[in-house]
Specification:
The complex is a heterodimer of chains A (572) and B (174). By secondary structure, chain A is α/β, with parallel strands linked by helices. Chain A has three domains: 168 residues, Rossmann fold (3-Layer(aba) Sandwich); 178 residues, TPP-binding domain (Rossmann fold, 3-Layer(aba) Sandwich); 170 residues, Thiamin diphosphate (ThDP)-binding fold, Pyr/PP domains (Rossmann fold, 3-Layer(aba) Sandwich). Chain A is built from 22 helices and 22 strands. In chain A, the strands form five sheets. Chain A has a six-stranded parallel β-sheet with strand order 3-2-4-5-7-6, sandwiched between helices. A six-stranded parallel β-sheet of chain A has the order 13-10-9-14-15-16, with helices on both faces. With 174 residues, chain B is of the alpha+beta class. Chain B folds into two domains: 78 residues, Alpha-Beta Plaits, CATH 3.30.70; 72 residues, Alpha-Beta Plaits (2-Layer Sandwich). Chain B has four helices and nine strands, in the order βαββαββαββαββ. Chain B is elongated. The relative contact order of chain B is 0.20. The C terminus of chain B is likely disordered. Classes of the chains: A alpha/beta (572), B alpha+beta (174). At the A-B interface, loops of A face helix 1, helix 2 and strand 4 of B.
Chain lengths: 572, 174
């Protein structure tokens, strides 16, 4: 039977198990929208295409499935670019379908024509311009396969209008044939052996984890390996949640996991950065040694032999030379390391590790993460502490970018993977709200909270209405300090307190704004109001904007100044 | 050190931009690049010459490999291989100089392919060194125009880095 391109589009999506599309219509994709009511697929109509891309991203990060968005040509397509780049930097599986002008007009500067393939080439895993309806099934199959396998990433599929109008016999390919794409999943046994020999000799090892542990679903393996080796664990922003920050102690109270160091890097904990600096062996798992993590390269783990596990060979020895590279899926490599550790246990491990664990305990006690809450003005960290307390850590948290993001990483104790959704690599302000909406679509019964700043929330504030009209009860906690706080902090520390362009003294009234959108607005201006506001917000089954008027000049500490080693932290 | 990379790519639109874009964005410098189809109609070969140390070339190779359209990369620098470049040079040549210039061309086994009132055009193939030497020999007469193809290369003997010499092409979906 002959099907139109637009029908083929839905048949393919059905076969890929797609349940929801985040989109915004326009001339070039009207045929797809015309066909949509005939198919059992949910469509979330956004208010700006950047929102669609971040929603698909939040959906993907919170589930591990491929997020899908559909936008029209020209501005529809360009509006997704920030979302595509965000997903690319953080390895998020996503397929973005963009409309395109009819093939006969491509290259003629037609109305709403843009070379979206050219524009997104450096920030996609791969991209396709479909010139023939007969190629559509193969291309869509490949797009989903590429997006979710290997190191995941966004794929853009550009669909010219005449292609989605054309007809052909529909056959969905059973397999993909991509001779140039063969990700290495199996870790090399010889390298595992070499790695374990180094691990055995180590006295002060640190396991350093990243987003790869989340993506490969290997939290269980990570915990098992860390406990087998009695090796402390630190994580990048992207890896938070893959190792349980808190565990129940003997009397059932939740307490920090004894092996947990917290996040490392520019705003890492004192103990994490010190442990890295004093470690003699670093087991890096699913990380890419980003500059925010390493600080000055020569000062990063100067005494350590480095073992690096990653599925992407380009991540290995890109920024830091490593001693034992292991290309493969983190889960596979961790399993093999566990096998090696169990086959050949380290003798006298407890005694061997005791001084190191003691040293870390001392670092933790010397400089714990701390702030002073007084009775006058709300400290932003206090809000995050209270959110954590009220939901008992059981929530999906998204963040915007800046101080809100770093305080969340420091003070919310993430203990399960896929519960922190944040733009780590690109640092996209405006990510948190749409990502929260995407996560709420996937998890209608879970508490989803966007921890935001008064600056970044305004970058995609239009999506509040998307949450309202789709009955998605996301909660937004705005840490309102009337500044672009992180930039202000840099100006304070490194730019002579010249606060140019960072003061947001003119902001909307977020409570009234929530009301105007049909959401609920709540405000806390005094410390004692914080907890009641959070409790009320979490009990309402509608979207809520919480406006926390916080201390305007609070900074994120510790901070490693740019260009310094991570052991050179400013602590207050 | 200069490295010669022999790269097999899908013969699809956009593959050259992907490769070129990668080099540009990552700040890799291309010395020369030659591209054309291979014995299989859907596969092209790029011969890319890049200069850099071991670590740099390793990163170039890995990044190229990451492109979905790139099927196979061989760094043949340290292998035994034959390489050729083609140059066409239009040189100023008064009628009285023609014999002399023809003589030089003969030494380099270059062929005259065109003759103007005051110019001669030669084609010459060979490795980079020979082409450079030929160019230098003609320079005193006045080179009006010059075009070079960039290097193409092939492994010597029975060894080959062809389309089917890699791992199996079939890729199964789990």
């Amino acid at each position: 039977m002959k099907l139109k391109g637009a029908q083929i589009f839905f048949e393919c999506l059905k076969r890929e198990g797609v349940e929801v599309i985040f989109g915004f219509p326009g001339g070039s994709v009207l045929d797809i929208y015309h066909e949509m009511p005939n198919h059992d697929i949910r469509h979330i109509l956004v208010r700006h295409e950047q929102g669609a891309a971040h929603m698909a991203d939040g959906y993907a990060r919170s589930t591990g499935r491929v997020g899908v968005c559909l936008v029209t040509s020209g501005p529809g397509a360009t509006n997704t670019v920030t979302g595509v780049a965000t997903a690319y930097m953080d390895s998020v599986p996503m397929v973005v379908f963009t409309g395109q002008v009819p093939t006969a007009l491509i290259g003629d500067d037609a109305f709403q024509e843009v070379d979206i393939i050219g524009i997104t080439r450096p920030c996609t895993k791969h991209s396709y311009l479909v010139r023939d309806v007969n190629d559509m099934p193969r291309v869509i199959k490949e797009a989903f396969y590429l997006a979710r396998t290997g190191r995941p990433g966004p794929v853009v599929v550009d669909l010219p209008k005449d292609v989605i109008q054309a007809q052909t016999d529909f056959r969905y390919p059973r397999r993909v044939d991509l001779p140039g794409y063969k990700p290495t999943l199996e870790a090399h046994s010889g390298q595992i052996k070499r790695a374990y020999q180094l691990i055995k000799k180590a006295r002060t090892p640190v396991i350093f984890t990243g987003g790869g542990v989340v993506l490969s679903e290997s939290s269980e393996e990570l915990v098992r390996l860390a406990e087998t080796l009695k090796a402390p664990v630190t994580s990048t922003l992207m890896g938070l949640g893959s190792f349980p920050a808190v565990v129940p102690d003997s009397s059932g109270n939740m307490d920090l996991h004894p092996l947990w160091l917290g996040m490392l890097g520019m705003h890492g904990t004192y103990r994490a950065n010190m442990a890295i600096s004093h470690s003699d062996l670093l087991l890096a798992v699913g990380v890419r040694f980003d500059d925010r993590v390493t600080g000055k390269i020569s000062g990063f783990a100067p005494k350590a032999k480095i073992i690096h596990i990653d599925i992407d060979p380009t991540s290995i020895s890109k920024n830091i030379e490593v001693d034992v590279p292991i290309v493969g899926d983190c889960k596979n490599a961790l399993r093999k390391l566990i096998e090696a550790a169990e086959a050949e246990p380290i003798e006298g491990l407890d005694a061997l590790r005791a001084p190191w664990i003691e040293q870390i305990r001392q670092w933790k006690e010397t400089y714990p993460l701390a702030y002073k809450q007084n009775s006058e003005i709300i400290k932003p960290q206090y809000v995050i502490d209270k959110i954590y307390e009220v939901c008992r850590g059981d929530a999906i948290i998204t963040t915007e970018v800046g101080q809100n993001q770093m305080w969340t990483a420091q003070y919310f104790h993430f203990s399960r993977p896929r519960t922190l959704l944040t733009s780590g690599g690109l640092g996209t302000m405006g990510y948190g709200l749409p990502a929260a909406i995407g996560a709420q679509v996937a998890h209608p019964d879970r508490l989803v909270v966007d921890i935001a700043g008064d600056g970044s929330i305004q970058m995609n504030i239009q999506e509040v209405i998307t949450a309202v009209c789709n009955c998605l009860p996301v909660k937004v906690a705005i840490l309102n300090n009337h500044y672009l706080g992180m930039v202000r902090q840099w100006q304070e520390l490194f730019y002579d307190k010249n606060y140019c362009g960072t003061c947001l003294d003119a902001s909307p009234d977020f409570v009234k704004l929530a009301d105007a959108y049909g959401a609920v607005g709540l405000r806390a201006s005094k410390p004692e109001e914080v907890e009641p506001v959070i409790r009320e917000a979490f009990s309402i089954k509608r979207p809520v904007l919480m406006d926390f008027v916080v201390s305007p000049e609070e900074g994120v500490y510790p901070i490693v100044p740019a260009g310094k080693s991570i052991s050179e932290m400013l602590l207050v | 050190m200069k490295h010669t990379l022999s790269v097999l790519v899908e013969n699809s639109p956009g593959v050259l931009t992907r490769v070129a874009g990668l080099f540009a964005r990552r700040g890799f410098n291309i010395d020369s690049l030659a591209v054309g189809r291979t014995e299989k109609h859907d596969v092209s070969r790029m011969t890319i010459v890049v200069e850099g140390d071991h670590r740099y070339i390793e990163q170039v190779t890995k990044q190229l490999h990451k492109l979905v359209d790139v099927i196979k990369i061989s760094d043949i620098t340290t292998e035994e291989y034959v390489d050729r470049e083609l140059v066409m040079i239009k040189v100023a040549a008064e009628p009285s100089q023609r014999v002399e210039i023809m003589h030089i061309a003969g030494i380099f086994r270059a062929r005259a392919v065109d003759l103007g009132r005051k110019t001669m055009t030669f084609e010459c193939t060979g490795n980079e060194g020979k082409i450079n030497a030929f160019e230098e020999s003609l320079r005193p007469y006045g080179i009006k125009e010059l075009v070079r193809t960039g290097k193409v290369a092939m492994l010597r003997g029975t060894r080959f880095s062809g389309v089917d010499s890699g791992a199996s092409k079939e890729m199964k979906e789990e």
